């Protein structure tokens, strides 16, 4: 697959992969396992689950695992992401994860939602990204 011919998104397969990896979540504190799966522009599927820590603010969300797996398997760009709870129901990414997904997928990256996927541009309007960094530099 090249950047101009993105793979078709099989939402059922993404949700199934997210649900499967959710079973490996480390959640001794919240007891709230989350799994996520992403589809890359070149057709790979990458997954991640949440990993808690006794210092709650240091928790790794499932989407963090997806981004790590994306880069560990060759990088690229995400075109779709599904994040699910223990029932397999689609979840919306938290604010930090929306920023991560924007950086790795851009405004057109689709996020699983009911009744239909939502592009990142709607989940994170007026996003901060690399163009803001270059515009705000001083000499």
What does this structure look like?
This protein is α+β, with helices and mostly antiparallel strands and 139 residues long. The chain has 5 helices and 5 strands; from the N terminus they run H-E-E-H-E-H-E-E-H-H. The chain has helices at residues 11-22, 62-72, 95-105, 120-123, 130-135; strands at 35-40, 45-49, 78-84, 110-111, 118-119. A 5-stranded mixed sheet has the order 2-1-3-4-5. A hairpin with a 6-residue loop joins strand 4 (110-111) and strand 5. The longest helix has 12 residues, at 11-22. The protein is globular.
Gist of the model:
InterPro entries: CMP_dCMP_dom, Cyt/Deoxycyt_deaminase, Cytidine_deaminase-like. With 139 residues, the protein is of the alpha+beta class.
Helix/strand class: alpha+beta
Rounded mean pLDDT score: 93
Give unreliable regions as ranges. Answer: none
- The CATH homology group name: Cytidine Deaminase, domain 2
Rg (CA only): 15 Å
CATH class: Alpha Beta
Distance between the termini: 40 Å
How many helices in DSSP terms? 5
């Amino acid at each position: 697959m090249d950047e101009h011919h993105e793979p078709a998104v099989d939402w059922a397969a993404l949700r199934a992969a997210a649900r499967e990896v959710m079973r490996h979540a480390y959640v001794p504190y919240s007891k709230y396992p989350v799994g996520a799966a992403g589809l890359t522009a070149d057709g790979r599927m990458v997954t991640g689950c949440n990993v808690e820590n006794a210092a709650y603010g240091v928790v790794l969300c499932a989407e963090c695992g997806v981004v790590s797996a994306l880069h560990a398997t060759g990088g690229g760009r995400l075109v779709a992401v599904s994040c699910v709870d223990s029932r397999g129901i689609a979840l919306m990414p938290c604010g930090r994860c929306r920023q991560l997904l924007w950086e790795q997928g851009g405004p057109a990256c689709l996020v699983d939602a009911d009744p239909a996927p939502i592009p990142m541009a709607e989940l994170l309007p007026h996003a901060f990204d690399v163009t803001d960094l270059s515009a705000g530099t001083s000499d």
